[in-house]
Structure formats: structure tokens, C-alpha cells
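User: Run a structure prediction on this.
Assistant: Running it now.
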Amino acid sequence: MTENRGRYLAIIGGILGICVSLGLFSIIKGIIPTNGIGFIYGVTPVLGISDPDTVLAIYTFSSTALAVIGIIAAYRLSKNVRNSALIIIASGLAGFLFMSYLWFPAGFLLVLGGILLMRDRKIGTPA
């Protein structure tokens, strides 16, 4: 059971990352009602695109894709656990680029899960 703790942390971090990314997008776009609370957000142009709605969509869906990559890497560990752990850590760190401080809990769990997977190399070896 202890050898799977990194896997579980990475999966939980990925699910949390999906909830944060799509939840923020839904709140800002008005899909989830906020009872009259207004949100003002400013974005910097990305790849020459300066429309705030498009940039917000790029950020949130990119971070959602990174969370899904982390979940898939944790769920289906390759024969070389180190490669899967590096993918999980990279998706956790890259999420900070798109969501900054909102991604902290999800990114922390993904990075911690990846580090624990690298420490527990017994996964995938026959008993």
C-alpha cells in the first residue's frame, strides 16, 4: 500500500487541477452563478492574441490538459517508473505557468506524488 502513495497523490492532484481550472473558467464566464459578485481579470497577450476570453480559455484548458496528462501518467505507469514520475512532476510544474497561485495545491500534490514515485522504485517489479 505504501508504494502506491505517490500514484494516489498524483491522481488526486490531477483531479484537483481539473476542478480548479474549469471551475475558474466557469465562474469568470458566468456558467456558475456568483450571486452578483463581479470578477475583473486582466490578461497579457498570448501568441499575439489579446482577446481576454480567448486567452483565459487557452490558460484554463492548457492547465486542464496538464492535469489530465498527470492523471494518465499516474494511472498507467510505464515499465520505467522514473519516466512516468518525471512526466507527473513536469505537468505539476508547468501548471504553475498557466494558473499561477491557484494551481498551488494541485501542483504540489502532483510534484510530491512524482517525487514519491521516484523514491519507491518497487512499483512494477514482480513480487
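The mean pLDDT is 80.
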